[in-house]
Amino acid sequence: MSVIKCEKLTKSYGENKALHELSLTVEENKITGLIGRNGAGKTTLLKIIAGYLRKSSGNIEVFSEQPFNNLKVSSNMIFVDDQMNFPTALHLKELLYVAKDFYPNWDMDLAERLFDYFSFHPNERHHRLSKGMKSTFNMIVGLASRCPLTIFDEPTTGMDASVRKDFYRALLKDYIAFPRTIILSSHLLNEMEDILEDILLIRKGEKYLHMPISDVKAYAFGIRGESSAIKEWSSDKEILHQKQIGDGSSYIVVTNTSYKLAKSAKLEQFTISPVAAEDVCIYLTRNEKGDIDHVFNRG
Amino acid sequence: MYLTEVNTLQIIRKQYQFKLKAYVGAFTSLLVMQVTAILFSLGGTGGMSSSDGYLYISGTQYNGSIVIAFTMLWAFISSILITTKAYRNDDFTFVTNRFTSHVSNIYFLLAASIFGGITAMLSGYLLKLIAYLFYNYDAILVTEHAISSILVGATSTIFYILLFSALGYVIGVLVQLSKLFIILIPAFVIGNLFLQAGERVSPLVDFNKVVHFYISESSILLFMVKVSVTILVLFSLSIFITNRMEVK
């Protein structure tokens, strides 16, 4: 069963299209990583799925229903981001009890154990917490609510490295015990790639890639060797990225398909290395204007 | 993981219970408003004096009228406050849609208005008690009310407070729809007051007539009908105009 189904989903703000004819399907009980550059439309997509924003055109179904203003979707979904609002009048502990009241699958035991582990004080108030502590508290609410659709939009904002690690581990453990559909959006792909099953890469409001993480890891190869030889070898290949290295050699990244095609050729003279999923995503979503070096190369 | 089936009434009830806890600040401000109003009332809420050259009589009246007026103002402001983004987004952190969010707000305002109305009514008695205990009057006349007239008084107080609350709510919702209303609404009210004060041009809305429509009603039942219909229209309008609004 698919939990989310979009067909030609478009969201525009005036002339500007935040999402452009996006079609995708997210299957039940999978952890999907939503990856994209700043402004690619990640948050807009997630907020439409959550029913906060209205689509401009196309079609979207969550649990086979239109999500906007939908009570069923709201009851079965939690949206966690760093701007999560909680009433200022209530203490942290009271907030957990409020959440328990709203979410039928809420696990108070888990919430309290995480609460103690991250040393929250029951009488603290959410708006007085530091940025990282806020994110940590939001994460506890997101995990303990055990919603069939759990959306984390950049959940690790402000968290320190060890809390981030704890978060991913807690998420994975709880997911294994209670499988559910989880969407994680983040810039830090390399630290969460171990827990993801699928990657959804969007670029300028359009879907660019949606595949299992293992396929992304094998999507491209890095090849390094003497510049002229590299140039000759790669003339008919799809190059994702290239870089000059000081000693007259070059490093290029080619897609797996072009690599396979050329396997027979004289590859022995080159050094071949795998490319991390994060780098693949960076190469695939890079600017057409070239990289940051171009800004500084005026000559 | 199984899907939860939803029951709109149940969600509204949960939201309402949540708001009674989360909006406790509204009750604190009610307390502050009413204490302030009581202080203002200590000098008497009305009075008379007369003299024929030999005999001089002066009287001071104590009742809850200033407290009731302050409570109306409180209801108006609190209603605007709970339509603001921060409060609205609190709802959307948990389970809601726009309809349940509004309906639970309305229930909350109803409860708050009843509470505010009753305390405002009672403060009139508190003032009389203060006058009795701390002031040296030669004579004290207490108007005794039959239970039925106390009930009529309390009911109409509550309905007036609710009326201001509904008015505040719809204004708050309009401002959420477009910030232009922050300018438009006061401009309309003040401009209309000027037109009303002058005599050449007739005002767009005759405020006197509007006020007269409610306060001149001598039958409590008809008054309740008039106010209820107004409140119902104002709240329905609020729900209707924001049902398609995007949040967060």
TrEMBL record, chain A:
What SUPFAM superfamilies does the database record attribute to this sequence? P-loop containing nucleoside triphosphate hydrolases
Spell out the PROSITE patterns in the cross-references. ABC_TRANSPORTER_2 (PS50893)
Specify whether Nucleotide-binding is a keyword of the entry: yes
Report the domain of life of the source organism: Bacteria
Which is an annotated GO molecular function term of this record?
Answer: ATP binding
Which InterPro entries does the record associate with it?
AAA+_ATPase (IPR003593), ABC_transporter-like_ATP-bd (IPR003439), ABC_Transporter_VariousFunc (IPR051782), P-loop_NTPase (IPR027417)
**UniProt domain ABC transporter: residue ranges:** 4-229
Q: Name one Pfam family in it.
A: ABC_tran
> Which key words are in the record?
ATP-binding, Nucleotide-binding, Transport
Query: What name does UniProt use for this protein?
Result: ABC transporter ATP-binding protein
Protein's organism: Aquibacillus koreensis
TrEMBL record, chain B:
Q: Which organism is it from?
A: Aquibacillus koreensis
User: Which protein are we looking at?
Assistant: Uncharacterized protein
Listed A to Z, the keywords are: Membrane, Transmembrane, Transmembrane helix
* Regions crossing the membrane: 20-42, 62-84, 105-127, 147-173, 180-198, 218-241
